[in-house]
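Note on ligand handling. Small-molecule inputs were canonicalized before submission; formal charges were left as drawn, and no protonation-state enumeration was performed. Where a ligand contained multiple stereocentres, the stereochemistry in the source SMILES was retained. For copper (II) ion, this procedure yielded the string shown in the input block below.
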Amino acid sequence: MRLLTKLVVAMAFLGGIFATGVAAATPASAHAELASSDPAQGAAVDALPGTVELTFTEVVGSPASVAITGPGDVSVADGDPEVVDRVLTQPVAADGAPAGEYAMSYRVTSADGHPISGTVTFTVGEPGTGAANDVSAAGGVGTGVVAGLVAALLAALGLVAFGLRRLVPRARV
Ligand SMILES: [Cu+2]
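Structure output:
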C-alpha cells in the first residue's frame, strides 16, 4: 500500500510539472512579436541592403523606430521607418557602409498599445564565417522551453526511479 501511495504522489508530481511547463509555454499576452526579418537574425549578407524589413505577428503602429548600428557604432538608418500592417520598413544608407556585425534595434507599438522592442543582429560582407546558420536567437525561446520541460521530466523520472529502488528491495524481503 505504501508503494502505491508513493506512486500516486509521484504521478501527481509529474502531472504538476507538465501542467506548469504547458502554462509557461503559452503566451501570457496577445501583443505582437517579431515574426521574421530581412536580413534575418544571424544572417550573413554580401552587402548592406537599401532597406530592411521587420515583420511582426500582428499589426503594429507608431511610435516606431529602428536604430541600425555597425562596426565602430556607425549608424546607417536613413530617415524614419514606415509601418504598414504587420511590416516595418526602414531605409538604410548602405553606400560605403563597412563590413562587419550589424544590430537592428527596433521599437514599435502593438495593437493593444504596448511598446515592444528587440534587436536583430546580422553580418555584412564576411562570407564563410558560418554566421548564416546561426538562428539561435530568433528561435531560442521555444527551444529553451522544450529543453526545460525535458530536463524537468527527466529529473522527476529520476526521483521516481530512486524511490522505486529504495522500495522494491524492501518489498522483496
Ligand atoms: Cu500587449
